[in-house]
Amino acid sequence: MQGGSPLTLECSAGSTTFVEGFLSIASPLTKLTQKTVKFQWSEACEKSFQELKKKLITAPVLTLPEGTQGFVVYCDASRVGLGCVLMQNGKVIAYASRQLQVHENNYPTHDLELAVIVFALKICRHYLYGVHVDIFTDHKSLQYVLTQKELNFRQRR
């Protein structure tokens, strides 16, 4: 076994907001940390480790937010995870992503897309309080979620 390990993954976890695509890059490494998986360092793990190391040591092109100007949040969900990008004036402020939890694997697409919006708002809340925010998603039906008469329990949460 070379290099990487759960320790490397834990150390880099705090940088998820600054590494674009962290979820997809670290996926082979996070699978190694599961209790039911035998630890075997593969070619995919080594590639993931090297890519993550490269991303962490190169300077990301992020900017600081400018006052109370509005923000734009781009959200997307997949069967692998949730991800969002916080932007202001066309410049990236932060990235955020996470893998789906076990129970979320059974969610329909509509609920996953709603979950990523909730995730984005929680992660970026300290930037978004008191300012105008535009949220973009590729799931058109979410436009009507606040005007629906009936929401299931998961959507109400």
Automatic annotation (TrEMBL):
Species the sequence originates in: Solanum verrucosum
Domain Reverse transcriptase/retrotransposon-derived protein RNase H-like: 41-134
Protein name: Reverse transcriptase/retrotransposon-derived protein RNase H-like domain-containing protein
UniProt GO molecular function: catalytic activity
Keyword vocabulary terms for this entry: Multifunctional enzyme
